[in-house]
Amino acid sequence: MSDDTDQTRDGLLSRLRVIEDQPLETRAEALGHLHDELRIRLEAGDAPRR
């Protein structure tokens, strides 16, 4: 893996650890936001390159 990939993975894992330490209601909302962010990033990757 590249350094960028490692940093992205480590950043995601750090965010998930922080989220998992939150109360359930806050955790659910934070995971929903993370889900939306990841979906947007994945969908943007499907766009044709010019």
Compact description:
This protein is mainly α. 80% of the residues lie in helices and 0% in strands.
Task: Explain what the structure shows.
The chain is flat. It has one domain (3-44). It has helices at residues 3-20, 24-45. Helices cover 80% and strands 0% of the residues.
Features of the shown structure:
50 residues; mainly alpha; flat
Order of helices and strands: HH
Q: Which range does the strand content fall in?
A: under 5%
Kindly report the average pLDDT value. 88
Number of helices: 2
Structural class determined from secondary elements: mainly alpha
**First-last Cα distance:** 26 Å
What is the radius of gyration?
14 Å
Q: Percent range for helical residues?
A: over 70%
Q: Indicate the overall shape.
A: flat
Task: Tell me the number of strands.
Answer: 0
- Give the total of domains: 1
Low-confidence stretches: none
Largest sheet: none
Compile the SSE list and pairings.
Blueprint: H1 3-20, H2 24-45
